[in-house]
Amino acid sequence: MPGDSRRVPGPQDSRSPHWYGKQPPQHQETGTRQDGRADHDLRPVYLHAGVVSQATGSAYIELGQTKVIAAVYGPREIARREEFTMKGRLCCELKFATFSCRRRRQHMQDNQEKDVSLIVLQALEPAVCLVSGGFLLITKQGMCVADLVQIYLSLIRSVLVYGHVLLDRFPKSQVDVYITVLQDDGSALAAAITCAAAGLADAGVMMYDVVTGCSVRQCGDRQLLDPSGSEESSQEGEGVEDHGMVTVGLLPSLNQVSALVLDGHLPQTTAVQLVSLVSALVLDGHLQQQTAVQAVKTCIGGCQGIYPILKDCLVKSTRRKVPAVDPTLIRTSIDGQNGRT
Amino acid sequence: MAAPRVCVPGERLFSTADCEAGPGTYVHHGYIYSCLAGYMHKRKQDGKELPIIEVIRQKEDAVPRKDSIVTAKVTSVSGRMCKCAITCVERTTLREPFRGLIRKEDVRATEKDRVEMYKCFRPGDIVLARVVSFLDKKVQVSLLTGFLDAACQLSLGDANCYLLSTAENELGVVLALSEAGAQMVPVSWCDMQCPKTGSKESRKVAKVQLQQE
């Protein structure tokens, strides 16, 4: 890759000093994790909205040592090169800061970052009123579930049909979400989803629901909720049939899954089970207890755990940012703009 | 009065049996949900039984719509059109300017063919204009292919610009600087005078009217 001539680059293969230090042993006591959590515990969460003054809305999240900041700009004009649309557009760009990981990252957006941007975008789209959302299921390492995905897609769409009512709110304009991962210590994608949703709500963008994200690391029969960096990269459980990462984006109030990312060696039968679970979640929720199914359930539990924090943070930021006003004063201006009452 | 309740997107507020959904809310499975982070208000409607629920966030983000009056700054003038940057929609200031375009035939309502753009606008003028409907090429195509709905919707100009019109007495240049750099005073609907040098410059002047409050 060509270097960036405008910057003084760090050495290509520089590493943090931590790399050379001794890794603390995993699972000192049986039943607890490296940081003393139980398998289904979240790390401490800190969430604050309204941190970037020049952005329309913004949010900052910490999940343990993972730190992510998101800034939302818009509605702004659609760039010249984009094709014409009467609907609003949502754009999402995620960047890992150069110093965020163990290994130094480059300034340019690489493929992983593009992938993650897309996942976050698709996780947010069903929630935001200005776009017609779809549903995303990404499977890696050769899982073939395309047919089931199609079935599931039709199911989700039928639920979200009413979403088109508000599409004309922002004609010809777009909302940009810029996410920067300041430090990646595991579950960066989940943190990015939650943070971006908080930023959008803080920007006053109309949404059907907020989105919370959560990850589970499957190591054999163990399910580690909200894995830390060392747990994400650990080799434990490899060679056994079930090991991988599951990330879920959830609309907590509507109880709908907006994104589901599976990564790892989850056997195909498990994946099939899983898709049927997700559709059943919307309908009923009576299914067998399979590993990946259970992992998704654990994820959803984690997402529900983050929801009160997100809600509390948004209430606080709204009180801070928007002064309570007499509704009769603003009503005239709103009616004038929309041309309807 | 107690501070109104703050809700977040997706919060379930009331059943549709008790209330009616207003701005900032949506209805799903018989319940009213909030779709904004803002303050919830319940207000009585005249002549209706159910109160209306609305969620209000003071800063309403505005984008130019059809028939809305916008304030724009002229950025460049050519023989056929005048480009401008839209800075305000109605009374809301935009965070970032939108591109706008005034075509020669949209400058005034009468004697459209005798309009000379250079005598109507100069770069730097502040203009009041209305967003107009316009059938551009894409719309004509979609008309032919039968997408009439799309054609009706595509009324805000082409992909790049909003089309503006000043073909009303109340629309046109409201603020302009003379060559000497002083703010000019309107003397007729097509002339403005510099208070410093006394020279006249031609513009399409707006007859500014005070809004009744």
TrEMBL record, chain A:
Residues 42-205 form the Exoribonuclease phosphorolytic domain. InterPro entries: ExoRNase_PH_dom1, ExoRNase_PH_dom2_sf, PNPase/RNase_PH_dom_sf, Ribosomal_Su5_D2-typ_SF, RNase_PH. SUPFAM superfamilies: Ribonuclease PH domain 2-like (SSF55666), Ribosomal protein S5 domain 2-like (SSF54211). GO terms for cellular component: cytoplasmic exosome (RNase complex); nuclear exosome (RNase complex); nucleolus. One of its GO terms (biological process) is nuclear mRNA surveillance. The keyword Cytoplasm applies. Residues 1-38 are annotated as: Disordered. It comes from the Eukaryota. It is found in: Cytoplasm; Nucleus. One of its GO terms (molecular function) is RNA binding. Keywords: Cytoplasm, Exosome, Nucleus, RNA-binding, rRNA processing. Belongs to the RNase PH family. This is EXOSC6 protein. It comes from Branchiostoma lanceolatum.
From TrEMBL, chain B:
Residues 93-133 form the Exosome complex component CSL4 C-terminal domain. The keyword Cytoplasm applies. InterPro entries: Csl4, EXOSC1_C, Exosome_cplx_N_dom, NA-bd_OB-fold. Keywords: Cytoplasm, Exosome. SUPFAM superfamilies: Nucleic acid-binding proteins, Ribosomal L27 protein-like. Pfam families: ECR1_N, EXOSC1. Coiled coil: none annotated. One of its GO terms (cellular component) is nuclear exosome (RNase complex). This is EXOSC1 protein. GO terms for biological process: RNA processing. It comes from the Eukaryota. GO terms for molecular function: RNA binding. It comes from Branchiostoma lanceolatum (Common lancelet). Residues 6-42 form the Exosome complex component N-terminal domain.
